[in-house]
């Protein structure tokens, strides 16, 4: 009975972990760049990294270098193999991109400059670039707020960004396993082709 209870709790925790979302949040502004990771309710700051206390390094005795055995040269990959690997990578990348959900995208750009003609041209180029990206982000971003301004008084262009995206852990696991099985199947086919030739 106790075993069944423990097994049920472990299955429930595994299902909760696979159903939870892992995400990243990137914030850029006048204060600098901040990158945070999250998994469910847990948060971890990646950048700027926390300062660690300096520890006294122990002096290690130098060991004589070991003699390395000459490794057998690997056969060069053919163009067909590279194309198959590229196809696998693109398919996995497309599946991952479809699984990613962009929760928030906030972009503020203030273009600076004293020359009105040059500034107007830069403004038009920036708007054209945003117009090209808009169809890609239309069905992908849940909260989107992109604004572009001009300011002749600023000495340099200013920008701020808030980007938050997440993906379900179970979905990433399925994509990784699918890519791994396809890769192993491809390698097995290459080895069988080498032995038959």
Structure, briefly:
The chain is an alpha+beta fold. The protein contains 4 helices and 6 strands; from the N terminus they run H-E-E-E-H-E-H-E-E-H. It is extended, with a radius of gyration of 26 Å.
Structure description:
This protein has 197 residues and is α+β, with helices and mostly antiparallel strands. The protein is 46% helix and 27% strand. The chain has helices spanning 2-19, 79-99, 116-138, 169-196, and strands at residues 21-29, 32-39, 42-47, 101-112, 144-151, 158-168. The protein has a six-stranded mixed beta sheet with strand order 3-2-1-6-4-5.
Q: Could you tell me the mean pLDDT?
A: 83
Structural class: alpha+beta
Reading the helices and strands in chain order gives HEEEHEHEEH
- Cα separation of the termini: 58 Å
The percent range for strand residues is: 25-35%
What's the gyration radius in Å? 26 Å
Structure summary, number of beta strands: 6
Biggest sheet strand line-up:
3-2-1-6-4-5
What is the global morphology?
Answer: extended
Biggest sheet details = 6 strands, mixed
> Helicity level, as a percent range?
40-55%
Oligomer: single chain
Q: What's the number of helices?
A: 4
Unreliable stretches (pLDDT < 50, length at least 5) are none
Write the layout of secondary structure elements.
Layout: H1 2-19, E1 21-29, E2 32-39, E3 42-47, H2 79-99, E4 101-112, H3 116-138, E5 144-151, E6 158-168, H4 169-196
Parallel strand pairs: 4-5
Antiparallel strand pairs: 1-2, 1-6, 2-3, 4-6
Helix pairs in contact: 2-4
């Amino acid at each position: 009975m106790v075993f069944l209870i423990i097994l049920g709790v472990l299955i429930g925790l595994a299902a909760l972990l696979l159903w939870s979302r892992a995400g990243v949040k990137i914030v850029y502004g006048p204060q600098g760049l901040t990158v945070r990771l999250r998994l469910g309710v847990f948060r971890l700051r990646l950048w700027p990294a926390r300062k660690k206390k300096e520890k006294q390094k122990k002096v290690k005795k130098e060991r004589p270098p070991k003699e390395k055995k000459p490794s057998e040269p690997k056969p060069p990959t053919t163009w067909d193999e590279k194309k198959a690997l590229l196809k696998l990578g693109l398919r996995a990348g497309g599946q991952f991109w479809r699984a990613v959900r962009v929760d928030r995208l906030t972009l503020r750009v203030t273009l600076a400059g004293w020359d009105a003609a040059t500034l107007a041209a830069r403004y038009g180029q920036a708007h054209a670039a945003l117009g090209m990206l808009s169809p890609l982000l239309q069905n992908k971003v849940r909260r989107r707020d992109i604004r572009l301004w001009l300011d002749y008084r600023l000495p340099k262009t200013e920008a701020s960004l808030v980007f938050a995206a997440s993906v379900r852990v179970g979905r990433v696991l399925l994509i990784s396993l699918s890519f791994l099985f396809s890769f192993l199947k491809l390698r097995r086919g290459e080895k069988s082709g080498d032995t038959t030739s």
